[in-house]
Amino acid sequence: MAKEQLEVLNALDVAKTQWYHFTAIIIAGMGFFTDAYDLFCISLVTKLLGRIYYHVEGAAKPGSLPPNVSAAVNGVALVGTLAGQLFFGWLGDKLGRKRVYGLTLMLMVLCSVCSGLSLGHDAKAVMSTLCFFRFWLGFGIGGDYPLSATIMSEYASKKTRGAFIAAVFAMQGFGILAGGIFAIIMSSVFEAKYSAPAYQVDPIASTIPQADYLWRIIVMVGALPAALTYYWRMKMPETARYTALVAKNAKQAASDMSKVLQVDIEAETQKIEKLDGQPASSFGLFSSKFLRRHGLHLLGTASTWFLLDIAFYSQNLFQKDIFSAIGWIPPAKTMNAVQEVYRIARAQTLIALCSTVPGYWFTVAFIDKIGRFAIQLMGFFFMTVFMFAIAIPYKHWTHSENRIGFVVMYSFTFFFANFGPNATTFVVPAEIFPARLRSTCHGISAASGKLGAIVGAFGFLYLAQNQDKAKADAGYPAGIGVRNSLIVLGVVNLLGLLFTFLVPESKGKSLEEMSGENEVEEQ
């Protein structure tokens, strides 16, 4: 087998880091910014919605969303994301990355704004509207996963590709911080302007009527940064790899990249025709050839993402308990509605600042030095260790004098999720599949992850309930308890470590080398 590489692709592979790389990171990253902002804010908003719409006369504790409503509000966006990943992943390979890219962003902006508007005043109407628009918001966000990863991998040079794709994903960290900081500012403004007594003093007056505006403002502002990048998204040229290898238009690819890289690139029409006749450029997703070449790779990327997200999304369940246990968040009845938003936002922003955000940027810094495989293996290994270290002596951590140790262990688990599989499972599927199936395969891997997220967020909501039905949360059946749930999570991380061995290392190699698209059979 001889290797033939098109000049335009080679130019991208060896390009020095330039300004357009950074603009691409910002433009592609804004979808993830919105994604993280939205997922972050909904946990603040659900508490407030419970107080506003599910207040029970004479109850000792403030109103909270019934389990089925809470599951719907949180779950519907995840289901939407899963559907969007599959649909837009497939569409990105059919129509081209660029043509679909503006569509996902518009959908996110529109649905972010609409989820803050609700038709009607009663709880049912508000929740139904919120769920409807959150599904479509998730659908748009889902499309952004395969498209952003694929666009960034196809634009980047082979030396820095891992860092650039990881940087797009790391914009989630900024989304989380922005969500937290904005919620802190808005709740402080509302608290200063409309002060209210604590719930235990006056249950009715503790939730001010204006609080209904607070959650809407928080939810809607997430649309702003995404809307601002729409124009730039539309101006980005189609990636050269799609134009040359999938659309077979060498001239267009050369002229687009000549503008971007500011060098002259010749169009090699004959070379494209030569590559086009090769067996590597003709098999489909459901062919035995794909199965032979990439079947295990797809199983590897999909299973590791699935297992990671089970652990990653179930963490949110323990977050509330952890904050209450350390005393960062006082009991709900001692605060009014707006104070509660402020307290939760402050606690979550602190966790994000200390463990989540640094983890992402550690990956960006090291992924092209030590490679994807090593980072993913190390991440799963430490997540397993810290999960078991929290779970086995769980009784010990529940005593108030040990709570600082508990938070440290907990933070480390999330630091190693982000400096580990949370970032690498996003990077690798964008690098190891052929151009004409790249977006689809990334979408399948990401959707498999979202399936894990649904298992993590809901399976564990029921699993982690107390074994004694009387002590379980209102409306839930008895579960296996938090300690046993944590042990299950440790085992899930261990499985993730084992499945990592199916994923190939792509550090420093060109995309065509990884997918075999540059192989030409000797005549």
From TrEMBL:
GO terms for cellular component: membrane. GO terms for molecular function: phosphate transmembrane transporter activity; symporter activity. The keyword Nucleotidyltransferase does not apply. Residues 24-508 form the Major facilitator superfamily (MFS) profile domain. It is a multi-pass membrane protein. The chain crosses the membrane at residues 20-49, 69-88, 100-119, 163-185, 213-232, 349-367, 373-392, 404-423, 443-464, 485-504. It is found in: Membrane. GO terms for biological process: arbuscular mycorrhizal association; cellular response to nutrient levels; phosphate ion transport. The keyword Transport applies. It holds the Pfam family Sugar_tr. Gene3D superfamilies: MFS general substrate transporter like domains (1.20.1250.20). InterPro entries: MFS_dom (IPR020846), MFS_sugar_transport-like (IPR005828), MFS_trans_sf (IPR036259), Phos_permease (IPR004738). Keywords: Membrane, Phosphate transport, Symport, Transmembrane, Transmembrane helix, Transport. Belongs to the major facilitator superfamily. Phosphate:H(+) symporter (TC 2.A.1.9) family. NCBIfam families: 2A0109. This is Inorganic phosphate transporter 1-4. The gene is LOC105128711.
